[in-house]
Design brief:
alpha/beta; disordered N terminus; TIM Barrel; about 15% strand; eight-stranded mixed β-sheet; 14 helices
């Protein structure tokens, strides 16, 4: 049917009011109906003009349809606060600020720099919170406070790379035992800093032993114990006031007896060594997938595509941070075979273990530890107190050091942290009795430069080098002697402890009024 044939009946149709069906209606009704039908017919004819039934002009047949307006892609709305782990990587920022200091020169002391040097009768100058100069013939700046160091020794501040001060504080009461969240084998989402009690008197005691920085770790009852935090050992009523600015977080992991004992006794997973390994691998798989989903989401958002973000998971945030190289791994592990297994797991998922802690059998795999660049944090002579520590030996530390691997002496104890210098001396002595000929210039790094490196702050502290933080200890004798005490302790150049001046013997508020308050003698 052509367009004209379709229109012809309409063109010659009778007036609507002559239709028999309408003729019996009153005139007013017929007019209304006719108007309605005429309007409907007009609409139909208009439709015909575009439905292909009516002929089109040549230009109409060849013209392109009108282009639609270009859609403007709307920028994706930002996620609500707290939902995107990348928007606030530091939700609990450090508020630490160095105490006031004055330019200072320690003159005539024997200096152990922790860079392999011993300078007898040397000079150490610091100002503005930084080391300025170290050497034999160093000029003392005009106006600097001069300390007579003759007969004494100077070292970098001691760093305790395995401490539970604050999370297992003194006094030891059940209401303050906050170091182990023993409710699940994977508690990577907890942060040790949220358990730290900054007024633990143990901080004051360790400072009197020369400790200027500490790594505070969760306990070792879980496969993944949570995040560890680096603190400057300064008096504070808040943990944020002690946080080492810019120091990386660490993840505490534990292998061996503790996790399988804790959860095996509860008839829960894991209860065996192979269960431990399954738990690690499953967690890393989950973390890698979590990281992939966030990457996919960000890629789509970058292309202005619609995307749903993954639900944020604080546990997986920490594990993903390890995979991205932002968070260090501190691994509680005693036996050599289990350390080797953990190294294989790190290769499988592409992360690096910064340090094995306790590591009683590290001497058995010292070349492997050197090749992997993994530090060993151990004691001088703790061994045999449980089955996995049975093969510990006194020369463990010295043998690891002799192999060229990174060696750290740590405390894991509120008493040992008060004399880590002596603990290092015990380990040095054991090594030298075994024929390793370790010097003081080497051994001092075990409690200064090496732990600084292993906890991620070695570029800022741990050695007496110009430009580094002026974390300095003046000892009244050979620091490896059991008779030696710290005379003065400086943190960022500020005198923070003085054995002979009670004004510089800070006391926790908890101790005020207590018997023996502030007794460090």
């Amino acid at each position: 049917m052509t367009g004209q044939a379709a229109l012809a009946p309409v063109a010659y149709a009778r007036p609507l009011w002559e239709n028999r069906a309408l003729s019996n209606l009153p005139m007013s009704w017929r007019s209304a109906v006719a108007a309605c039908l005429t309007g409907a017919l007009a609409v139909s004819l208009a439709a015909c003009a575009t439905d292909g039934l009516t002929p089109k002009s040549p230009s109409a047949r060849t013209s392109k349809p009108a282009a639609r307006p270009a859609s403007t892609a709307q920028a994706p709305r930002p996620l609500a606060r707290g939902l995107d782990p990348a928007t606030d990587a530091d939700p609990f920022p450090s508020t630490y600020s160095p105490l006031p200091s004055a330019p200072t020169a320690i003159v005539g002391a024997n200096v152990l720099t922790a860079t392999g040097l011993q300078i007898d009768g040397g000079v150490v100058v610091f100002a503005g919170g930084k080391i300025v100069a170290v050497g034999k013939d160093v000029a003392v700046p005009a106006g600097a406070a001069v300390i007579d160091g003759r007969g004494k020794w100077v070292t970098p501040g001691v760093i305790d790379a395995h401490s539970h001060l604050g999370v297992y504080p003194s006094p030891e009461v059940s209401s303050r035992q906050d170091g182990n969240e023993l409710t699940d084998p994977n508690t990577a989402g907890v942060w040790a800093e949220h358990s730290v009690w900054p007024e633990d008197p143990g901080f004051d005691r360790s400072r009197a032993g020369g400790v200027t920085s500490l790594l505070i770790l969760p306990g070792s009852g879980n496969l993944f114990g949570g995040r560890a935090v680096v603190l400057k050992n300064v008096p504070s009523v808040t943990t944020q006031g002690m946080k080492f600015p810019g120091a990386p977080y660490s993840l505490k992991m534990a292998c061996g007896e503790n996790p399988k004992r804790v959860y095996g006794q509860k008839n829960r997973f894991p209860s065996t060594a192979m269960g431990n390994v399954l738990g690690y691998r499953k967690a890393w798989i989950d973390a890698a997938d979590y990281e992939r989903r966030w990457d996919d989401y960000r890629d789509k958002i970058g292309r202005h595509e619609k995307a749903d973000p993954p639900k944020r998971d604080l546990q997986l945030d920490t594990l993903a941070g390890v995979l991205k190289g932002e968070i260090l791994v501190q691994n509680h592990c005693y036996r050599s075979d289990e350390m080797a297994t953990m190294i294989d797991i790190s290769h499988e998922f592409g992360f690096h273990i910064s340090m094995f802690h306790h590591a009683s059998e590290a001497y058995k795999i010292a070349p492997l530890l050197k090749r992997e660049g993994i530090c060993t944090a151990t004691w001088a002579d703790w061994a045999g107190f449980k089955m996995e520590a049975f093969d510990g030996i006194e020369s463990n530390a010295a043998m690891v050091h002799h192999a060229g691997a990174c060696l750290v002496i740590k405390s894991d104890d509120p008493v040992i942290t008060q004399h880590l210098n002596q603990e290092a001396g015990i380990a040095m002595g054991a090594g030298n009795r075994a024929g390793f000929n370790i010097t003081r210039a080497e051994a001092i790094a075990w409690i200064t430069a090496n732990p600084a490196r292993a906890i991620g702050v070695g570029d800022r502290t741990g050695s007496l080098e110009p430009g580094k933080m002026a974390d300095v200890v003046l000892w009244n004798g050979d620091p490896f002697s059991i008779y030696t005490k710290a005379d003065k302790v400086f943190i960022d150049g500020a005198l923070i402890y003085d054995r002979t001046d009670r004004r510089f013997q800070p006391r926790s508020d908890f101790e005020v009024g207590q018997p023996g308050e502030g007794a460090f003698q």
